[in-house]
Fold this sequence. Notes:
Radius of gyration: 46 Å
Helix content: 25-40%
Distance between the termini: 139 Å
Structural class: alpha+beta
Mean pLDDT: 78
CATH architecture of the domain at 128-249: Beta Complex
Strand content: 15-25%
Strand order of the largest sheet: 8-9-4-3-10
Largest sheet: 5 strands, mixed
Order of helices and strands: HHHHHEEEHEEEEEEEH
Shape: extended
Amino acid sequence: xxxxxxxxxxxxxxxxxxxxxxxxxxxxxxxxxxxxxxxxxxxxxxxxxxxxxxxxxxxxxxxxxxxxxxxxxxxxxxxxxxxxxxxxxxxxxxxxxxxxxxxxxxxxxxxxxxxxxxxxxxxxxxxxxxxxxxxxxxxxxxxxxxxxxxxxxxxxxxxxxxxxxxxxxxxxxxxxxxxxxxxxxxxxxxxxxxxxxxxxxxxxxxxxxxxxxxxxxxxxxxxxxxxxxxxxxxxxxxxxxxxxxxxxxxxxxxxxxxx
Length: 259
């Protein structure tokens, strides 16, 4: 009985030793033993891809070119242009012996460099002319125009001018400046559509327009000018009801919009 028990007890111990001794060998000889220890999701090709990711991230940094947009992506924005150079001041201009006089004039008149230049241009650019200002009735449209203080007015009797009493004087486009109200202006045309009859959307007043006789200039309504700049007015009747004949016979009206 003692031998049976000792034999039975020895057999299990021998089995455990046999299994324990074979496990390392089996683990070492198994082809997938090394991969069995890696966590899920990092086996096979995934582990190789993970090792390549750092090198892929370094490639754009080493490339001197900007990254190109992929399919379906907007193109990269172009670089911003350099800012425009600042306007020169009086100290940066070569005024010579007139520098002291210029700076004294600016201080006396309390003008900036730009304001002093504007005053000079307004005085001498259009010699013999004055700056008129005007606009519509509601004030939405305002303009300024350089013209003589003695105005030559055309009183046209064409179908539309007769209806709206369109008396006007003509100036080149370069002498006219719309100060405000571009969004408040609407235009009516008819027949040849060369004349652009512009008027205020709100009050309906036409203070200026582009006439058929001078499409490169503006016809200004003298009754829409502000008071104080008109010295005299001369009115000439123009037979717009027979427009082609009147234009052939008139000697100067075509040139009124030229510089």
